[in-house]
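lol forgot to send this yesterday, sorry. struct tokens for the thing we talked abt
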């Protein structure tokens, strides 16, 4: 994403049921504001702690069994 990027949808339709985007002046929000909103939503509903970041998905089954392998940073 580039600096100054704005969404092509108004904030009024970008929220989630029961968790709307905060009131602000601009109807079209910047990418960093969208990222902050998604991070806030994820933290509010404790989604972040259930995400395995920096893992490779090695296998996915029909029954939501995920086999992950941690990614080694070099």
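and heres what i got for the seq, position by position
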């Amino acid at each position: 994403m580039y600096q100054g990027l704005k969404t092509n949808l108004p904030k009024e339709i970008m929220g989630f049921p029961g968790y709307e985007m905060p009131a602000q002046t601009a109807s079209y929000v910047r990418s960093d504001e969208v990222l902050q909103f998604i991070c806030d939503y994820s933290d509010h509903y404790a989604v972040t702690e259930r995400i395995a970041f920096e893992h490779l998905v090695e296998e996915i089954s029909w029954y939501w069994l995920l086999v992950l392998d941690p990614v080694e940073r070099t």
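Residues 1-73 form one domain. anyway ping me if u want another try
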